[in-house]
Amino acid sequence: MDTKSKHVATLPPAPRLGTAVAGKPIGKTGKKAGTGLLGRLGALAAVSLALVFGASFPGVARAQEQCTPLLSGLRLPVASTLTERGHLLISESGDASAGSGRIDILDRDGRLRPLIVGMPSAHADVGDPSGTAGLFMQGRSLYVAIGTGDIGVKGPRPGATLVNPAGPSSPLFGSVLVMHFSAATEDRTTGFTMTPAVEAALAKGWPVWLHDSRWNFLFIRMVAKFPNYVPVPLPDVPGNVHVTNPFGVVGVGPSLFVTDGGRNLAWKVNALTGAASEFAIFPDIPNVLFPRVGGPFQQAVPTGISAENGKLLVSLFRGAPFGTGTSAIVGVDSRSGAQAPLISGLTTAIGVLPLQHGRQRGYLVLENSATGPFFSGPGTLLQYDDPNGPPTKLADCLNAPTSMTLDRKAGILYVTEEGGNLVGIPFP
Questions:
Q1: Most-buried pick from 148, 197, 207, 386 (CB within 10 A)?
Q2: Burial zone of 230 (CB within 10 Å; 0-12 exposed, 13-18 middle, 19+ buried)
Q3: Percent of the chain with pLDDT over 70
Q4: Helices (H), 24-176
Q5: Taking Cα atoms as reference points, which of 240, 247, 328 lies closest to residue 284?
Q6: What is the DSSP-derived secondary structure letter of residue 202?
Q7: DSSP 3-state helix, strand, coil percentages of the chain (rounded to 5)?
Q8: Separation of alpha carbons 347 and 316, rounded Å
């Protein structure tokens, strides 16, 4: 097959996932609602479903009553974004089996269907599945960050990583792709398929056209491929490396900015030429729990990224032992790379959104776990009217959240959870 031209993706049109809270199917599935949530919430569930389908929400309930399960059975969803047509795109990293990653489309009527399946997935050096990660939609172009996959393997002791002697199972790990598709394709597609032949073509720099069973088209090319790793020898592990691990992606002007949780930096990428450079390096901080728990330092681990008036907002998750209050949001000048603290005292911050709607200003911050060390509390959603002031806790009913996307028209904040769920939180 000519990998430089067309590749056929023939998929069933029916979605495979999702159960609405009130018991009405979002898609054909036998899977139950995800565990670890508050369950089906009666009246709140009905109100939140009305939000999803375009109704209004009259007020905000207590923090623990905010989370409404919308979908379950996703395979490690780590990012989402809205299209201009109001569809929610969700990236699934997969279950570490080859080709188990995917990107889904959630229609405004609640129907879930694939945009593309067969995306790479593999066990990362820390053991978790890694694959399709951050999403950024600009017009008809979808930029996709691909995580570290199996570039590295677990080293001989905790905190050490070695280069995978077999090599990565996909040449796309540690890269950024762009997918172009029309509005008609977005509305009608039955889904496209990534194959090893397509991966090989993209890795060679070839653009690839795919078509689905209805002859809708998707154009893909690799924007940038980052170095797989950098050597960081240790006295007892001379082969130790830090692997590249793209997580979040956002665009400002002609540039993309990509957080790299493995290298503790943000990349700057020319969206047209693919030229990439290390843009902002985030230093370690002292581990306040040392020597009782962990080593003397915590790594920065940049995760979520967004933009506000030319300034990048980067969530610093922080590494082990994930102590309470050690995480932060930093602002980064998108021209100079200069960093300035914005919000401190957080715990495992994984996402930040600026609020600029009319006179409303401030920030939404998503914490993967509100209490440390080692994720000992629920995930929380915080609202800061003033980054220097105390936050309002909007929700503390989340189970290891990974990303958030605000749909202003529907009045709902979509939150993906590590366990495979999509949760809705009313937001006026």
A1: 148
A2: exposed
A3: 84
A4: 43-52
A5: 328
A6: H
A7: 5, 45, 50
A8: 9
Residue 366 token pair: 């998503």
Residues 426, 66 contacting (CB under 8 angstroms):
yes
Structure tokens at 95: 């279950």
DSSP at 290: T
CA 299 – CA 226 distance, rounded (Å): 20
CA distance 308 to 361: 11
What pTM value is reported for the model?
Answer: 0.86
- DSSP assignment string, 2-60: -TTSEEEE---SS----B-TTS-BSSS--PPPPTTS----THHHHHHHHHHTT------
* Other beta carbons within 10 Å of 112: 24
Rounded to an integer, what distance in angstroms lies between the CA atom of residue 394 and that of residue 383?
7
Tokens of 378: 């629920």
Burial class (CB in 10 A: 0-12, 13-18, 19+), 124: buried
| Rounded Cα distance, 67 and 147, in Å | 28
Three-state SS for 175? Answer: strand
Question: What is the tens place of the pLDDT at every residue in 125-170?
Answer: 999 999 999 999 999 999 999 999 999 999 999 999 999 999 999 9
H/E run at residue 113 = strand 112-119
Cα–Cα dist 184/171, whole Å:
30
Distance CA 391, CA 24 (A): 35
